[in-house]
Amino acid sequence: MGKPTGFLEHERRPIPNRVPTERVKDWNEIHEPFEEEKVRVQGARCMDCGTPYCHTGMTISNMASGCPVNNLIPEWNDLVYNNKWEDALERLHKTNNFPEFTGRVCPAPCEGSCVLGVIEPPVAIKSIECSIIDKGFAEGWVKPNPPKSRSGKKVAVVGSGPAGLSAADQLNKAGHLVTVFERADRIGGLLVYGIPNMKLDKEIVQRRVDLLSEEGIEFVVSTEIGKDIPAKQLLEDYDSVLLCCGATKPRDLPVEGRELNGVHFAMEFLTKNTQGLLELKDITSFETAAKGKDAVVIGGGDTGTDCVGTSLRHGCASITQLEIMPRPPEERASDNPWPEWPKVYKMDYGQEEAKEIFGDDPRNYLTATKKFVGDENGNLKAVLIHEIEWKQDNGRFTPVEVPGSEREIPAQVAFLAMGFLGPEDIIAEELGLERDSRSNIHAEYGKFNTNIEGVFSAGDMRRGQSLIVWAINEGRAAARECDRFLMGETSLP
């Protein structure tokens, strides 16, 4: 619980970010180093709240409330405050395989349900988590710990995002021989090519992958199951298969001009950019690089923000972000009570940077795209947009164009960041896997088994586009059920 009177004595001070005008000049992580003593003070703010909600991991109103991996937050807050960092790290690893990832990119639903947040700014949980694991690596406390014995059972994990890696880690701890297949050239899935370097440095990802490899997990890259290796072959070669391929079908925008040069899915932009940083060392070599261009980002979520931040680092001439939803309120609305996730107005790192450079938040709320406008050579030159209102139609709210609100904005590059529709089809079709109404792999939460014996599915491939902490939650839980299938019982948490 930290210090009994800590929340009365100390203000919330999360890990500070570097100055926006400076950090846009490089691709380094945006955070400043956080002094150890300041982290301890933040741990002191954790109050004796009786019934902590921060670690509950509930779903309320279709949103995460509390930590989906059930981190023992009050315990390690108290340990940090009392300068017992190694004990805090041990507690943290009990529930979370990769706190260095969640401590950087998780939206922190734990903070949204913090009891202190009812009356004051919540405890800086995410900053404390990140500080614990970073100190653990710096002090050499995080070491390879291979299993003492092997079961002889072989498991194939398809996909190396957070769900696949957490499942592989748990199954390896249980003594199984685990092989992870990844179609990209690097292990990490969205951790590598879906999240930009300024949010999660790729050396942080590789450090953990190297650790997992030392513990006995085999990684196979540049190999797509269903193309390079038939999915059915995995059923013959392995005792069990766990599918964690993500929900990678992007939502398209079928309006006039979609085919123009310069209109791209967001993930293409972000992936090519990271590939350029890692391999080419020249990110402007990507043909749709935003340098000197008017950039438009369509979509208001995390991926949209990443496109904003990436475009700014390219040196775009202007940046506009289109958001079909209304601007959130400054404080919780009456229909959004604690401990629900607080749907309030805030600027993420990309919007903060855009405001510093161009003078305003780049988001245009209640705005939709009507047409992509091209020049005589088939290149994008503008986007025709219009304002919308949300109106009820047979009980459902639908966007309706506001008459006379049409206008063109200049754009030589546009990125579609409107989310994802579900997993790709190739493995599901080859194996004859059942799908749910949203095209995700049908596998009941808590059991994770598909209609094919010995084949399990977890993460976004099963639940749809979601948070990294839900992916880790599902990877761990699916590993437990896979272990039970293989051994008849399980001791995995």
Highlighted features:
FAD/NAD(P)-binding domain, alpha/beta, Fumarate Reductase Iron-sulfur Protein, Chain B, domain 2, 493 residues, 5-stranded parallel β-sheet
Question: What's the topology here?
Answer:
Blueprint: H1 6-9, H2 20-23, H3 36-44, E1 58-60, E2 63-65, H4 73-81, H5 85-95, H6 99-105, H7 109-112, H8 125-138, E3 154-158, H9 162-173, E4 177-181, H10 190-193, H11 202-214, E5 218-220, H12 231-237, E6 240-243, E7 249-250, E8 263-265, H13 266-280, E9 294-298, H14 302-314, E10 318-323, H15 349-358, E11 363-365, E12 367-374, E13 380-393, E14 396-401, E15 407-410, E16 413-416, E17 420-422, H16 426-431, E18 455-457, H17 460-463, H18 468-487
Parallel strand pairs: 3-4, 3-6, 4-5, 6-18, 8-16, 9-10, 9-16, 10-11
Antiparallel strand pairs: 1-2, 7-17, 12-13, 13-14, 13-15
Helix pairs in contact: 3-4, 3-8, 4-5, 4-8, 5-8, 6-8, 9-18, 13-14, 14-15
Biggest β-sheet: strands ordered side by side in the sheet: 5-4-3-6-18
Rg, nearest Å: 23 Å
Estimated structural class:
alpha/beta
C-alpha end-to-end distance: 24 Å
Mean pLDDT across residues:
95
- Strand fraction equals 15-25%
- Total number of distinct structural domains: 3
CATH class of the largest domain: Alpha Beta
Question: What is the CATH T-level topology of the largest domain?
Answer: FAD/NAD(P)-binding domain
Runs in which pLDDT lies below 50 for 5 or more consecutive residues are none
| CATH-level-4 superfamily name of the largest domain | FAD/NAD(P)-binding domain
| Count of alpha/pi helices | 18
How is the main sheet built?
A: 5 strands, parallel
Number of strands: 18
CATH architecture verdict of the largest domain: 3-Layer(bba) Sandwich
Shape: globular
* Percent helix: 25-40%
